[in-house]
Design a protein that fits this description.
By secondary structure, the chain is α+β, with helices and mostly antiparallel strands. It contains 4 helices and 7 strands, in the order H-H-E-E-H-E-H-E-E-E-E. Strands 1-2-7-6 form a 4-stranded antiparallel sheet, with helices on one face. It has a 3-stranded antiparallel sheet with strand order 3-4-5. The longest helix has 18 residues. The protein is globular, with a radius of gyration of 15 Å. The chain binds zinc ion. The site of zinc ion (ZN) has 6 residues, from helix 2. Zinc ion (ZN) binds next to helix 2.
Length: 158
């Protein structure tokens, strides 16, 4: 990966690999449950994070609980998080590259979380999902085709 970018991410104290890895799992869970696509915009910070999805309504309380249990079930499986590299052409066939930076280069880095999720990404991640801690959605709201999901983590390894 781009060394400069790597240093930049690392020097940002707000950046939190636990939160960011949880975002990957949340995205895959949303895709599996609602077929809605991964979040198109997000703000990931140590204290709390939010992800926005193209959607058609707010979530019910039952759905929120279901997402919480599914994400925590994945975290508790102790899945290994690893990186794999693909050429741009290979990656284009397998993944959605719409959020890949223009200057990503010829090799595309894909982050795999066990067999649960695979997504092109240049960020920093945990090595094992149990480092993430407990995942909890704190609120959701819906406005003009956008579902916003806010969440926190507790008890992860820092
Ligand atoms: Zn990532």
């Amino acid at each position: 990966m781009n060394e400069e970018l790597y240093r930049e991410i690392k020097s940002n104290k707000q950046y939190n690999p636990q939160m960011h890895s949880a975002e990957h799992i949340l995205n895959q869970t949303m895709v599996r449950m609602f077929n809605c696509g991964r979040s198109f915009s997000n703000h990931v910070e140590k204290k709390k994070s939010k992800c926005d999805y193209h959607f058609n309504r707010n979530l019910t309380e039952d759905e929120v609980q279901l997402i919480n249990s599914k994400v925590n079930e994945v975290i508790l499986q102790d899945l290994i998080v690893k990186e794999e590299f693909y050429t741009k052409n290979e990656a284009q066939e397998k993944f959605n590259l719409s959020r890949l930076p223009e200057d990503a280069g010829e090799k595309v880095r894909v982050i795999k979380i066990g067999d649960y999720d695979a997504c092109p990404c240049s960020g920093l991640h945990v090595k094992d999902t149990k480092e993430i801690g407990n995942f909890r959605i704190i609120s959701t709201d819906f406005k003009e085709g956008v579902l916003r999901v806010r969440f926190k983590l507790q008890g992860g390894k820092v």
